[in-house]
Amino acid sequence: MTHARQRRPGDGTGGLLSGTATFDELRDQAVTLRREGLSRRQIRDRLKVGNNDLLNRLLEGEPPPEWTKRPNAKDDLRARARELRKEGRTYDQIQLELGCSRSSISLWVRDLAKPPPRTREEASAIAKRGWEATLRRREAERQKTKLTASREIGRLTDHELFLVGVGLYWSEGTKSKPHLPKERVIFVNSDPDMIKVFLAWLRLLGIEPERLRFHLMIHESADVAAAEQFWIKLVGRDSSSFDKTSLKKHNPATTRKNVGEDYHGCLAVRVLQGADLYRRIEGWWYGIVVAAERTT
């Protein structure tokens, strides 16, 4: 009668070895298979080992193949969660900082001691750090989304830039009104990138640089000289292309948001002898409107 399992005195396997192989023979086979890249399940099935404790002994000291390992990002989260738990953080605080699920946190840190009750000051400080970590994570996510979106644009064709410029001007540029019928091309904005795109559009239309005049409008409490140099450098023209800067009087009772190093005032870009260009812009815009209506 053939026995599926045999007890071998002194091998410590409790009679769980299959066939007639000794423990050392079976370990050699298991190590060889492990180094060939097999998983624990594959080795267990190949050697007919039905006991996990025995399999652990057979593979003791042998690292798993790379393909069976968990992603490093998950391992890093687990390590960080354990660090935070040792610092005394609660599950909620760890979740707030790492952005992972409570169930994962519980699995990672359940063997660690529960933190003792904290004072109000300590709890407030921890909550503040958690909120700051959340803000950093959200900002990183926002920047990642913006970067991904910016890469979706790729290179603009001349026609695409042409359409963008028409829409940009009709949104932000000066327009003729029934009560003030002046056909002038004047674009005013405080956003340097908007000014860059508008100037690129004018170049596409063949507008010579000599036909452009610039006018800075800024609060008198700002660094006017620095702002003037900022716009001169951005548009690539010397000060002779700029009209005299207009200063807005400072009202101490008003809480202004446009302050700080990033505040450079508003720049007006005017195209000389621009009546004909204005009429074409208006026509282009209504052409876009009609075309858009036909797509619905």
Structure description:
The chain contains eleven helices and six strands. 15% of the residues are buried. Residues 1-16 have low confidence and may be disordered. The strands form two sheets. The chain has a four-stranded mixed beta sheet with strand order 3-6-4-5. Strands 1-2 form a two-stranded antiparallel sheet. With 296 residues, the chain is of the alpha+beta class. The N and C termini lie far apart (83 Å). It is elongated, with a radius of gyration of 36 Å. Helix content is 52%, strand content 9%.
Sheet of most strands: 4 strands, mixed
Structural Rg: 36 Å
Structural class estimated from helices and strands: alpha+beta
- Largest beta sheet: what is the strand line-up? 3-6-4-5
**Regions with little confidence, pLDDT below 50 for 5+ residues:** 1-16
Percent range for β-strand residues: 5-15%
Distance between the termini: 83 Å
- Give the integer mean of the pLDDT values: 84
Query: What's the order of the H and E elements?
Result: EEHHHHHHHHEHEHEEH
Helix content: 40-55%
Count of runs of 4 or more consecutive helical residues? 11
Q: Give the count of structural domains.
A: 3
Please count the beta strands (DSSP E, at least 2 residues each): 6
Shape: elongated
